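thread: overnight batch results

M.L. [08:02]
morning all. the overnight job finished for the chain we discussed friday. pasting input first so we're all looking at the same thing
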Amino acid sequence: MAQPTLLFKLTGPTKLRSGEVYAQLGRESNMIVRASLHTTAIQVLLPAIRTKLRDNGSIFRGALFQRIKTEDLTGPVPGVVVGAMGVAYAKEVEEGGKPRAVSEQEKRQIIDYASKKNGLSGSDAVRVAHAIIKTIETEGVKAHPFMKPALAAAGPEFLVRSRGRIMRHLFFHYRKMLGGGL
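M.L. [08:03]
and the structure it wrote out:
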């Protein structure tokens, strides 16, 4: 068997051979993944949830609609939380609720809701609000799911777009660390 007479030794850049690039990429990967998940949630999940709320004719687009937000999870594993931030009644809208007493603060919110949703004022708004309050106290709250159906519908797109975004950003950072090579 003949021995090759011409040999080429191919090696990567010094940074790559030393592992420096991989170590730096490892340090930055959590930030890259966290930012990618956050951006994709804003672009995919939030609109899906708001659309579901909008399509749900019995829900007024007030505080609940405006407070659908995303927040980054803190900790060693990057992640994102999507939901109705700071809206006490969001769970009751999603899952429904048993009959219960309505607080004075809730009564004021319901009067405000009745006036805005129905274009009422004064005693007309109070009359509609009292009917709603009586229903909550005697029959409970009917479920109007918006989060679970929206996440079920948009979840696959979120996963595909997140994965693509993460890979693009990791590759971009990798190339940048190599000085644009590759």
